[in-house]
Specification:
Helix content is 42%, strand content 25%. It has 4 helices and 3 strands, in the order H-E-H-H-E-E-H. It has one domain: Arc Repressor Mutant, subunit A, CATH 1.10.10. It is globular.
Length: 80
């Protein structure tokens, strides 16, 4: 496994606090391509990350669906 990039580290810090949506990761971490970074954390770094679609309101107050990611127990918890 290679070292984690600053983007991966920022995303993991958020995931360790609890579930986060794509929008929250963009705002809090400055990561634009969230799904790609999540895929890399799963496949290249071995983290167990779950995803579900949730409904949220956008800035125009419309209900939209976005991905919500969470760190799952198991292999991901073994990594320090």
């Amino acid at each position: 496994m290679s070292e984690l990039s600053p983007q991966h580290q920022a995303i993991l810090a958020e995931l360790r606090r609890g579930p986060v949506t794509t929008i929250q990761v963009i705002r809090r971490c400055g990561v634009i391509c969230v799904s790609a970074r999540m895929h890399e954390l799963k496949t290249m770094h071995g983290f167990a990350i779950g995803m579900q679609m949730v409904k949220v309101r956008d800035r125009r107050r419309h209900i939209v669906r976005v991905a919500q990611y969470s760190l799952l127990k198991g292999r991901a918890q073994q990594r320090a």
